[in-house]
Amino acid sequence: MLNQSLAESSYLQNRSYLGLRDRNASVKKQQSLGKLNGSLEMMGATVDYPRNGEIYGEGETADYVYKVISGAVRIYKLLDDGRRQINGFYLPGDVFGLEVGRDHHFSAEAVSSSSILIVKRSALIALAARQNEVANELWSITARELEHVQNLMITLGRKNAHERVAAFLLEMASRVVCGKHTFELPMSRQDIADYLGLTIETVSRTFTQLEQEAAIELPTSRRVVLRNRNALNKLNA
Amino acid sequence: MLNQSLAESSYLQNRSYLGLRDRNASVKKQQSLGKLNGSLEMMGATVDYPRNGEIYGEGETADYVYKVISGAVRIYKLLDDGRRQINGFYLPGDVFGLEVGRDHHFSAEAVSSSSILIVKRSALIALAARQNEVANELWSITARELEHVQNLMITLGRKNAHERVAAFLLEMASRVVCGKHTFELPMSRQDIADYLGLTIETVSRTFTQLEQEAAIELPTSRRVVLRNRNALNKLNA
DNA sequence: CGACGACTTGACGTGTTTCAAACGAGGTGG
DNA sequence: CCACCTCGTTTGAAACACGTCAAGTCGTCG
User: Fold this and answer.
1) A152 — contact with chain B (CB < 8 Å)?
2) CB hemisphere CA count around A4 (13 angstroms)
3) Looking at the predicted structure, is the pLDDT value of residue A35 above 70?
4) Which of the nucleotides in strand D have any atom less than 7 Å away from a protein CB atom?
5) Which residues in chain B are closer than 8 Å to A156, comparing Cβ atoms?
6) DSSP 8-state symbol, A141
7) Mean pLDDT lowest for which of A14-23, A73-82, B76-85?
8) Do the beta carbons of residue A58 and residue A107 sit within 8 Å?
9) Cα gap B66→B56, rounded to integer Å
């Protein structure tokens, strides 16, 4: 796990172009975004990242703000010995990488092949200085992030494996575009494990157990059918 | 533990006055705060809370913003069965309870007898609408909070008991006003356990072990002397 | 068809929790 | 002033959930 994580994220190398990792990333087109979370228009470039492509690294200057167009993104931190904690997944429509300070506190990678809209942070800050709603929107993005992470804390600090996986499935079910009870996980078991503070084996076993308990169904390892949402909610404590 | 936690926080009762819990809390005086984190002046009232006094409860309307004058505060969430996760401790100078949305997402209690400055949120919001630096300051407070919680996530998700306690001690050493190597913990072992996602017994054992390893000294259960900061840093990974 | 990566399953080890009891400091009352 | 209570903390022994190590399966792609 450790070596794998370290290999996947070459966050030590520090080449960057337009604040984006060059490796495999290619600027696609200039496009108008529409609204920034429903309140303002802005300009940016859409960039495609391959699976596991690095978007930015911990400690890099945070010159850009990102929004997922398609695909999925994970942000994470590594301990010295390679243990990885994923702090969040970003799905289409989600904004990430917005910092108040100068630097990114995390690394960001594409979970799957992803299309990301990139906007200059300085442009947003300047806009916020003139328009109150924009300033408010930026603050809100940070606040929503905070709320999400705070909820994750209870999961990491006080829930057992079953409860963690249940919480994860319910979160995904509500966020992933999907059928009424079916959805597709964009991330691997390892990603889920590193998000929930478990090992890949425990996650896998828990999935199987939830299936045996008839709480879920797994047509494929990535496709989840919620058979008994109530059972999951109960686990969610 | 469960019953104790539930008993300590009567967060179900919903009486409030001036957004403060009435029980044992008494308004002391009107006073000028000076600067809000070094950038603006404002008015507020100082209120004293007794040990374990409730400051606000999860789900209550967030009409006020709080700043610790003296003492210490914990914010936390409870699961249905009483498991408690403390998301943070606030020490003199720290601002807490600032929300972007209408409601508080957590409960807040005084860890020890505390003096808290209270300011109307609406006043701050109004001020922020006129002054950019204030808006920025509010955003920064939320962002610092986010950063702190994100760091805690690695601790909860990926560190063992020794590493968690070491991280905690180093955090406290840097935040508590103290001698060069000595400081006084304002919170109980139970609070520490609920902050680190451990049990009180594990925290206690780990303290003793760190003492045996000569990393720390414990003149009393609340007083900590850092004997070997390097050893703790190594544990901090 | 073979190889590779992701996932699953099994057996075993261990760190943390659980349950229980003892300890110690601070406070009260006789 | 000492006995006694209380509450937070420490310590011990046993149980268990999750981690570790290792093998096996499945699906995909060349």
Assistant:
1) yes
2) 7
3) no
4) 8-13, 17-22, 27-28
5) 153, 156-157, 197
6) H
7) A14-23
8) yes
9) 10
